[in-house]
Write a structure and sequence with these properties.
alpha/beta, 51% helix, 4-stranded parallel β-sheet
Length: 203
């Protein structure tokens, strides 16, 4: 007996668009009410729509997704969720970007074996690509910093009275708390700025 057809979409942040994945599922005539969309990171499975979908899925249902990395960000997570869906739930999965990952085909031992191999290879490739992307980002940031590119908010300029307050504090005429109050900053910030100021004067 044929089950119900569902679709799952995940985008990594609320700023990203799900249009590409949505169009692919609509072309397969997946009912709108059966398409579940999560807009948050896949670093864990605390995803409300995915959890809701898991509760809905029953044996012999069919689940479409655009790519295998929609299931998670790590090799282990993807494999674990695949097994939950196919083994525990008895659901069929079709990964649109990889036709070999279609559990409706090859229900025999050899078909299952080949599907498992393809899944493991693709999961590894997906995780490896994310690692490479993070590495390239880190290298790009390091190269930009080496060229003098500043990241984050620019530091606030020191108050005009900082030199005078610093000298009185350094001489022990006022406490750190009083000095911070005069400069209009928290005590920890004053001490931090005082260290930087002192190093700058020495050098």
């Amino acid at each position: 007996m044929a089950g119900i057809t569902y679709g799952y979409i995940r985008v990594s942040s609320k700023d990203q668009k799900e249009d590409r994945q949505l169009i692919a599922l609509r072309e397969l005539s997946v009912p709108e009410k059966n398409i579940y969309v999560d807009k948050q990171s896949g670093k864990d499975f605390d995803r409300p729509q995915y959890k809701k979908l898991l509760r809905k899925l029953k044996k012999d249902d069919l689940l479409y997704m655009k790519s295998i990395d929609r299931l998670g960000r790590s090799y282990r997570e993807i494999l674990a969720q695949w097994r939950v869906l196919t083994k525990e739930k008895g659901v069929d999965i079709v990964v649109l970007d990889m036709p070999l990952l279609d559990t409706r085909r090859g229900k025999d031992l050899m078909g299952t074996f080949l599907s498992d191999i393809v899944l493991q290879v693709l999961s590894f490739v997906a995780e490896n690509e994310r690692t490479n992307i993070r590495q390239r980002q880190a290298e790009g940031i390091a190269a930009a910093k080496a060229k003098g590119v500043q990241f984050g908010r620019p530091p606030k300029p020191l108050p005009l009275n900082f030199h005078n307050v610093y000298q009185r504090w350094k001489a022990g005429k006022i406490t750190g708390t009083a000095a911070a109050r005069e400069c209009g900053m928290p005590l920890a910030t004053f001490r931090y700025q005082a260290k930087i100021y002192e190093k700058a004067r020495i050098s």
